[in-house]
Sequence to fold (520 residues):
Amino acid sequence: MSAEENSIVTPRVAVNDLNQSFGELEVLRGLSLHANKGEFVTILGPSGSGKSTFFSVLTGATTPTSGDILVDGSPLSASGDHLAFMPQKDALFPWRRVLDNLTLGLEVQGVKRAQARERVRPLVPVFGLEGFEDAYPFELSGGMRQRAALLRTVVQERDVLLLDEPFGALDALTRTQMQAWLEKMWEEFRWTVLLITHDVREAVFLSDRIYVFSQRPATVVAEIDVPLPRPRTIDMVADPVFSGIEATLLKILLEGS
Amino acid sequence: MTRTTATDKVAGILGPVVVIAMILIVWQWYATQSGLGADVLPSPSRVWEQGWAARADLWANAIPTLRATLIGFALSLLVGFLLSVLLDTSNIVRRSVMPVLVVTQTLPLIVIAPLMILWFGFELLPKVLLVAFVTFFPITVSLVEGYASADRDAETLLRSMGAGSARIFRSLRFPSAMPYFFAGLRIAITYAVVAAIFAEYAGASEGLGIYMQLAKNSFRTDLVLAAVAVSALLTLILFGFTYVVERLTIPWLRLYRRAQVSP
Ligand SMILES: Nc1ncnc2c1ncn2[C@@H]1O[C@H](COP(=O)(O)OP(=O)(O)O)[C@@H](O)[C@H]1O
Ligand SMILES: [Mg+2]
Fold:
């Protein structure tokens, strides 16, 4: 991609030497990584390594012990509202109907409810939620809930999407469908994405670049490019390049534990 | 699923009716067999007859009791809510204030009620205050626990959207507390009528409490029990009303619970 040829380009998000401890517990150690504009970057790591903690620092919910986070070259604290977050559990509010869940971010930003709805509505069919606007979230299937949670994230029109194990709770078949669907959506919208997963295949299938985290305290132990062409299709899973990267990642993860 | 809910519903109505009918039958039988006078143990049929004959009086006295109950309970809701917000501000505040609230609940009503009358007279105010005093605690506790039940992920989500504490309270913590609140509300409402009657008993010019006292002093045990039945009926109606309010204000909860049972 052009961003790699031209490394002078300021990354959309850059994290430099980030450290995070909770009292005695050291969770993040000297973390450095970046994502360029329109790039799909995945963070792959074992459970409990500190991936979600990393996102909670990025969203500003947790103040880091030390380190810099730059968005388009300026410190995160100054820019504030550049990142849109999708939590590990979908965190859809059961007392809000689907459409009202989707407008939550806009409402918090101060957009009037009617206006927020106008902005969300055209995206509802794109995300396969047509006809379910007035349903409650607990009436949706697992896949639909994740699509709703993703739409709630996307509609905020922030520069970067932070997706924390979006398909972790789904059954294998639905998960594969959702991965293919997300890839297609990404082709269309070209968001800058930081995705967390512990699923190696998901990481390879979706990403331009993958960072592998160690066990806690998390550091970056490997950075791997995925030179597979876009759009990605399911049959690429059998591609030697695909399985080669998959094997490399597995090896790194297993050695680290 | 649907079949069992239908049977459950019938059992839910039929069960209490059968139990109450059995108690009344045994009571009726014992009251007539034992030879105890009507001033000691009147039979249910006598309570009903005499209560019906005195219905105008009972009604006239139920109204002030209901008024004190409702106004007191409204005050209790307001105070209970404000306290819950105060307790939610920080752990330090909660740890310092909560023990004080617990202590208020250990004070014997027998002492509190006459003091209220002494300080605030025989009118509405002491009764309202006593009802609020007796009922605010379950409301506050249920709200505070409800706030704490708010999903951590959802809070992180709201913060990432740029929400401040007030917004998080309004959009997340308060709605999360609603199922807890209604549980607390039902506990509180069962104490409310009794508290009003207690206050009247300690000193009043009208109301079921004073009616009971006068009936007792003239050995009309049947009328005491008739007044008790009226107060129980008031409590039952208010209790049932909480379900109506719950269904109107948080219609999602019933559907949510149903979805949890049969996914
Ligand atoms: N606020 C916190 N206080 C104390 N420990 C925390 C906090 N947040 C996370 N942790 C700890 O940090 C570690 C990493 O957690 P997490 O980031 O959720 O891992 P992952 O998402 O990679 O599975 C865990 O051991 C967790 O208990
Ligand atoms: Mg996690």
Chain B has eleven helices and no strands.
